[in-house]
Design a protein that fits this description.
195 residues, mainly alpha, extended
């Protein structure tokens, strides 16, 4: 109907730049040719996943679940995530890894201030009033029974806790009540900073 606006043309250009610089499709002649390239990517992802599974299995003395728990306790996962984030940031800053609109092709970006959600005192008062109304209208005996089920199910490591949590939420138990019940059984997790 009309020529594209400058903004529409820029969006089209940015889309092409994202495909060219962020997907790596320009690195091969025919990315989906015979699916060999996709198969290679899948095989590499599988290889790396198997390495992680093997590490967790060794860490857990033959149990990946115990290895995952040990990894959490030793901050192994947080360390891997931190290392990956650092390496990615280093590649962004050096220009080795292009992100369109972030570290390349930035001209014409809308640099307008982004509106952030701000909770006012009035909003907080409304939320507290709604919470009070929910607590007044709910069946407290049903809430207490559902929280007791959460507590007993949490004490047994063989029981899937999710059905009890869903029932508690359906009975209008609050997040604080559910978390308090689980905290009594599990304690409170405190994330240790990665050094």
């Amino acid at each position: 109907m009309a020529l594209p606006t400058e903004k529409a043309a820029r969006i089209a250009l940015r889309t092409q730049q994202v495909i060219a610089h962020e997907t790596n499709v320009a690195s091969v002649a025919d990315p989906l040719g015979g699916s060999y390239f996709v198969e290679e990517l899948t095989d590499e992802m599988e290889r790396q996943a198997e390495e992680l599974f093997e590490y967790l299995d060794v860490l857990g003395n033959g149990s990946m679940l115990e290895g995952a728990i040990q990894g959490i306790e030793e901050n192994w996962f947080q360390g891997r995530i931190a290392d990956s984030a650092y390496e990615l940031e280093r590649r962004f800053n050096s220009g080795d890894h292009i992100r369109v609109g972030v570290n390349a092709f930035r001209e014409g970006n809308d640099d307008a201030q982004i509106d952030l959600l701000r909770i006012s005192n009035e909003d907080e008062k409304k939320q507290r009033k709604r919470l009070g109304q929910v607590r007044q209208d709910r069946d407290q005996a049903t809430v207490d029974a559902s929280l007791e089920r959460v507590r007993t199910d949490a004490a047994d490591p063989e029981i899937n806790l999710m059905p009890a949590l869903i029932d508690a939420v359906k009975s209008y138990a609050t997040l604080g009540e559910v978390m308090g019940t689980m905290e009594a059984e599990f304690g409170r997790h405190v994330e240790v900073p990665v050094i």
